[in-house]
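The data are quoted verbatim for completeness:
=====
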Amino acid sequence: MKRGIRGRLLLLSITVLISIIFFLPSTPVYPLLPDWWKNVMPSRGITLGLDLQGGIHMVLEVEEEKAVENLVERTASSIKDFLDSEKLPVASVKRVGPSDLIVTLSDPGKKADVAKKIEANYSNFIQKESQDNDLVYHLREGEVIRIKDSATTQALETIRNRIDQFGVAEPLIQRQGARQIVIQLPGVKDSKRAKDLIGKTALLEFKLLDEDHPMSRTLPLSITTLNEETFLAEYGSKVPEGDELMFERLIDSETGEIRKRPYLIKKRIMMTGDVLTDARVSIGQFNEPYVSISMDGAGAQVFERITGENVKKRLAIILDNNVYSAPVIQDRISGGNAQITGSFTTQEANDLAIVLRAGALPAPVRTIQDLTVGPSLGEDSIRMGIRATVLAGILVILFMMIYYRMSGMVADMALVLNLIVLMGGLAAMNATLTLPGIAGIILTIGMGVDSNVLIFERIREELRQGKPVRLAIDGGYDKAFLTIVDSHVTTLITAVVLFLFGTGPIKGFAVSLSLGIAINLFTALVGTKIVFDFINSRWKLQRLSI
């Protein structure tokens, strides 16, 4: 055997072997393999899409107006702190409506100075009107539009980060319209956990308890969830201005009973979770899970100042209006590290760490559509897809054997080789296989046969001109080369465009099609040529069955 043929045959054999190794995790044979194989060889195969294995399909709508309200609320607190630092007499700064705020002055004579400071430092707001002791400001309309659009974009990225950390293979997360987000999570079994993780706003806030007010000493240590409405009816009207009632969720480790501990908390936000850089689950000395958080440089300085100014006071750590813990500040805390403890399981602590790392949603999201797709539809789709692939393959194989005889059998061998390498390539990429992806595989079968038809017809033309078999084969491949490459490249460009601009199932089709095209070129121009060269080198063919 000539050295060139031996080298190409070795390359072909290695390609097939590697493809089979990568594809094995997707087959029923994989669980039967020994442990050493699973530890050394690839363990991830082809992932099935939502239409094949079931999962979750959700459509969420971002409440953009709430994002505007949140910004105005934060700006009101910022203006109050800023004017206090400038020694300007301001009684209060409050949000009114979705995008207005009112600055109430203690000294009306300083109105011009206050207005000048606000105009210079908060240009997003324009003065709407001026009353006796009040200055009314309105958020600019352009800024309102920007915030709403940014809220949906930020929500999309936040949800994507959470799902990536949740560990879902090949999820579909995309924007739909102005304020909706479409989510598809293939293979997710715990739908409730996934939905809670996606929809949680995760607004982390640090607030001080109001322990100086007499009401805080009259609050019960805990209440049942059934008595929450009765408790609010009794104490809700007694809450002083500037304070609010919040609850900490308590779970009895022995009975599993859920109770709530009420707190009187000051409304003023001392710090928010946007300063977090990391959140991880740790285990305490009594084997209870807690979340350890780290802050950036600016957050560490603010946290150090807050703890230094409020030693022996209690600081509530609040997530989505639920108190997770309210520890006593024993001393100034530097370094930007803190802990969130609470009555939660390891899984709940892990989910909390995920949403804190991914960041808070800029606004609440509302579920528009919520479907849990069962695997029964997927099993039927897989069965029909495999049946279509096998039927198409059999028909093509029979046609090639009947029409091109022995050469047709060589093309059929290339077709089988094409499928093996294609499935191995998809498994190596850990690609998601969908129904359109199966359609792409079937299309590559047709394209693979089409390449061989072009080659065989060129070989027939060479044989009709009286050329020897060896020269006819070489001439057929040489003359068909440019035509095959041209047809494959133009199809590949289409597949790339579909991948770049398509979504979901269209991308699945584009992946299987583009990979199949690349493999077609290899099997048609290299795979079948090796067989002809090998046969001709061994037997010196005088006639070719074609």
